[in-house]
What we know:
The protein is mainly α. It is built from eight helices and three strands; from the N terminus they run H-H-H-H-H-H-H-E-E-H-E. It has helices at residues 2-38, 42-68, 83-111, 118-139, 147-176, 181-208, 218-226, 263-276; strands spanning 231-241, 247-255, 281-288. The protein is elongated.
Amino acid sequence: MEHTHSHGHITRNITRAFVWGIGLNISFTLIEFILGYYYNSLALIADASHNLSDVASLILSLIGFRLAQKAASKLYTYGYKKSTILASLINSVVLVFIVIGILREAIERLNTLPEVGGIGIIITAGIGIIINTVSAFLFFKNQKNDINIRGAFIHLLVDALVSVGVVISGIIILYTNIKVIDPIISIIIALIIALTTWNILKESLRLIIDAVPKDINYNKIESIVNTIPEVINVHHMHIWAISSNINGLTAHIIVDKSNFQKIEIIKREIKNILSENNIQHSTLEFEFSDEECMTENCH
């Protein structure tokens, strides 16, 4: 009961963080788009476009997170847990298209520099720094072990840093009237988005096709299991991500027939070791050393 209560508390906190993050960013994105067009600032419009993608990202992430809480069924035997990885993948792909759009517009503006209002950019981006920092802080505690929440956290943190860049752009334009800084800052913004998106995109693709999660070392897990005195060998081991924060493993464990009475004890020991190494769900099949099927080639 205590574990269930704790899990429910965490779920409510994360849901509340998403709702607040979505609300704050929708409000700021609308303001930034309006002022970006009013002051003719591509840097503001680029930042607003990124913020808009973050709103979509937060909504998708929230949907994925809530779906992952749904119970398993006979049709969806793992429930909807992988939806968090799918949400992360979709968000990353959307950001790639956002980057392409910003770069294209920035390059066009390098050839034809418009008038840009500096003071408006400074004030708007300054508000953005506060909103994005507060929004990112909401996800700080729960982002370390979940790629879906980490994606939301990184996007918001990058937004805060990008807004700092936009403020610098506004100050330079205000005091020097060097208008070329606006598209240059926009290009820098696009590159920052691309760099921060790449790792999440790559990891999402890996997890969606059931590759071993990057924070798990296959050889290390195999070695640790083999160090248990009663274990002769482990083979047919598969490790994959069930969701963005739950990993699974299946394996065949070979033991001596004399350890038949200790199978449950050995199983608990292995499962505890796996749990300590970020593998929360494991299915183990035991074989005896004198059985015919005990090599890596058996099925």
